[in-house]
């Protein structure tokens, strides 16, 4: 299946997409989280917040200095454009952590989507906290652009996924497990187009191509744009080879 990856700011790229040109938005925006106070959320880099790894290939990424109010406003603008570009009955699913769960559900609905629920991503490898409950889940609020035509995509998908972040060959600070993303993209109708305006290292796109969907993405970081391009091109070759063998 074809893919298009744009280098640029997510909101700027989204405004160039045609109305009703995508079928599913599956995305992992910068959480602007990593702390319980505004100073903790806005005063540290992404690397400082989310990883203790020394690997210099895990480059920092921008967009991690918004407080709670500006994050909600910004994400609402993003999802408003996503909504315009989504076909009737299409879906949006947006990753977040516990600190940004409420703002994300607000932004999803503020953007126009009908809120359908919250998917749970359980992370088996996570830090214990003395005297506290362990924070071993992240969340994916999701919704649809009006009623869903379930007859066109009669899948039965779980609401909880359990998988650890990649450790071997990890190429992004907040990289999501490919096995989780390959399941999530199946909410897209067969033969449809998946969009990720925060492509990062390209995992959503790789999952989409592997499952037979077209993909359109945007990435503002030059480093991660190059990583995503390489991964998407490699997956396109694999998918094409599988198709030829079939």
Q: Secondary-structure element order, as H and E?
A: EHEHHHEHEEEHEHEH
**How many β-strand runs?**
8
Arrangement of strands in the largest sheet: 1-8-7-2-3-5-4-6
Average per-residue pLDDT, rounded, comes to 88
Total of helices:
8
- What is the highest CATH level, the class? Alpha Beta
Largest beta-sheet details: 8 strands, mixed
Q: What is the approximate shape?
A: globular
Return the CATH architecture: 3-Layer(aba) Sandwich
The tally of domains stands at 1
Strand content: 15-25%
CATH superfamily label: Vaccinia Virus protein VP39
Which blocks of ≥5 consecutive residues have pLDDT under 50?
none
Which class best fits the helix and strand makeup?
alpha/beta
Distance, first to last CA: 15 Å
> Under CATH, the topology is which?
Rossmann fold
Q: Helicity level, as a percent range?
A: 25-40%
- Cα Rg: 17 Å
What does it look like?
This protein has 246 residues and is α/β, with parallel strands linked by helices. It has one domain (3-245): Rossmann fold (3-Layer(aba) Sandwich). Helices cover 33% and strands 20% of the residues. It contains eight helices and eight strands, in the order βαβαααβαβββαβαβα. An eight-stranded mixed sheet has the order 1-8-7-2-3-5-4-6, with helices on both faces. Helix 7 runs parallel beside helix 8 (222-245). The longest helix is centred in the last third of the chain and has 24 residues, at 222-245. The protein starts with a strand and ends with a helix. GO terms for molecular function: DNA binding; N-methyltransferase activity; site-specific DNA-methyltransferase (adenine-specific) activity. Pfam families: N6_N4_Mtase. Belongs to the N(4)/N(6)-methyltransferase family. InterPro entries: DNA_methylase_N4/N6, DNA_methylase_N6_adenine_CS, RM_Methyltransferase, SAM-dependent_MTases_sf. Keywords: Methyltransferase, Transferase.
